[in-house]
Amino acid sequence: MPDAPMTPDTLLSMRDVTLAFGPKLIQRGISLDIRRGSIFAVMGGSGCGKSTLLKSMIGLLRPVEGRFEVQGEDYWAATPARREAINHRFGVLFQSGALWSSMTIGENVALPMQMLTDLPPATVSRMVALKLGFVGLSNAVDLFPSEISGGMRKRAGLARALALDPDILFFDEPSAGLDPITSARLDDLILNLRDGLGATIVIVSHELPSLFRIADSGIFLDARSKTPIAHGSPAELRDHCADPQVHAFMTREREEGDSTP
Ligand SMILES: Nc1ncnc2c1ncn2[C@@H]1O[C@H](COP(=O)(O)OP(=O)(O)OP(=O)(O)O)[C@@H](O)[C@H]1O
After folding, report:
1. 184 and 79: one domain?
2. Nearest residue CA, atom 4 of ligand 1?
3. 173 CA closest ligand 1 atom index
4. Could you tell me if residue 99 is inside a domain?
5. Are the C-beta atoms of 56 and 17 separated by less than 8 Å?
6. Domain containing 24 — which CATH number?
7. Do 75 and 179 fall into the same domain?
8. Is the predicted ipTM greater than 0.95, yes or no?
9. Does any ligand 1 atom lie closer than 6 A to the CB of residue 26?
């Protein structure tokens, strides 16, 4: 897969990417293709570099080697202004939801539109209502983050990530700290984004039930060798990957009582 030519359906791709912080190598030999309108999972044990890979996909970390392309365009060969334009296609939901505590939920969602567009205030208000409606938080527009639950904060973070109508969304551990029902609800929203809006989604997650349910493809990073050791959907990795480490990771939750088929 890694050396196959990019197809017109490929939205994000990496070829032989090496990621490092100064002298500290995190991962090398990363090659991947993310299809438009799919959900791509970044998997692997703690500290293997999942968040670092995500960081490099949103342009916050430049690979020390290799090529990163967005819709066939070499991201790091582009001018800073062009990269900025590409970044506007990205929506990011951080672990905590990362909301401003001194602003209401509505103000939080409005912020990217106020900062990055010239939309008139009435349009911003309408867009805020639309985004909050999409995540089921229409009634929370005037509440502060401290007044709503963790699951609602995640959804508010998602509404803010959707503010600029991104076509590529990045989620770092979206269900961390959520109970299974709230987490399943977030999965429904993520599936709606793919199926209803045609969004392309990259997700870092440890939550196997969620990964099996939503992800179409993915990559498994190994901390020891500092390389990807498997490519495929979570279910493919669970059922067909010969690597014992991958197999153990992907069947872990099942043995603990998960009923995912
Ligand atoms: N800014 C940084 N400078 C130096 N090292 C870093 C930096 N950020 C992360 N690291 C290191 O990079 C390695 C990978 O971290 P990363 O957070 O990407 O892993 P992860 O797979 O997302 O982990 P987890 O599942 O525990 O969240 C770790 O050893 C981490 O300490």
Report:
1. yes
2. 21
3. 27
4. yes
5. yes
6. 3.40.50.300
7. yes
8. yes
9. yes
**Tokens representing residue 18 in the block:** 């090496």
Whether 258 is in a domain gets the answer no
| Domain co-membership, 160 together with 44 | no
* pLDDT score at 261: 42
Residues 118-155 have pLDDT tens digits of 889 999 999 899 889 888 889 999 999 989 988 888 88
Instruction: Tell me the CA–centroid distance for residue 66 and ligand 1, in Å.
Output: 20
**8 A C-beta contact, residue 186 and residue 174:** yes
pTM of the model: 0.88
The residue range of the domain holding 143 is 94-165
Q: Does residue 134 sit within a domain? A: yes
Does residue 48's CB lie within 6 angstroms of at least one atom of ligand 1?
yes
Question: Number of folded domains in the chain?
Answer: 2
Tell whether 1 is covered by a domain. Answer: no
> Do 36 and 106 share a structural domain?
no
Question: Closest Cα partner for 25 from 243, 224, 249?
Answer: 224
pLDDT reading at 258 higher than 90: no
Q: Is residue 47 in contact with ligand 1, taking CB distance under 6 Å?
A: yes
pLDDT digits (tens, 9 = 90+) for 55-108: 999 999 999 999 999 999 999 999 999 999 999 889 888 766 678 889 999 999
Q: Please report the pLDDT score of residue 96 as a whole number.
A: 61
Backbone torsion region of residue 165, taken as left when φ is above 0, otherwise alpha when ψ lies between -120 and 50, otherwise beta: left
65 forms beta bridges with 18
Q: What's the full length of the chain, in residues? A: 261
